[in-house]
Amino acid sequence: MLIQKKFISLLLALSVLGIILAGCSDSASGSESSPKTHEKTDQHHTDDKGKKAKDNEKTAAEKPKQPKAVNWNAPSGGPYPKLKKGENIWLDVSKKDQKVYVKDGNKTIYTMIASTGLDKNPDTTTPTGTFHIQAERGKWFYSPQYKEGAKYWVSWKNHGEFLFHSVPMDKKQHVITADAKKLGHKDSHGCIHLTIPDAKWIYDNIPYNTKVVIHN
After folding, report:
1. Tens digits of per-residue pLDDT, 120-132?
2. Where is this region: Disordered (predicted)?
């Protein structure tokens, strides 16, 4: 009887020990699994951040860059060339490039950024073809019809109708910035807009009867 009681007590002790060990085992398993769960969550957040950064980079790359406005108070092509006697100087105007190339024979010696006609109708079209600088030129004009004027104009067609001249200005000779900012893009009624110094350079240096070729 005494032996039986001892045996029962031993079985009870072993059962309690087994329960304790099982609990410890579960706790240990839980503590090991927690960091893995955090690692997975942290990795998920890291992946999200990386994806967002890549999406932001992609959006920035896809966003079209705004063209930089041309300084209409400065030469658009750097220092001007010094013309020499005997050079075969002529002006090559590209409506596609929106540029005036000052040429010596086949060689481009200077490039000006320009605005030619909007080409929306006959009244806003810059004619194409071969022309020559005409006798008419002046330091200022103002057109009440269009409510704008310009400095340093030089005629190349119809004796005062089609001109090289500065960016448009109001009656008080203040630059109309909305038009001036469009240098490098079509904007005029048919004339060729230039920065103020570029227009003055043509006024001062390009003589009567100089060839002007305008093309698309």
Report:
1. 999 999 999 999 9
2. 28-78
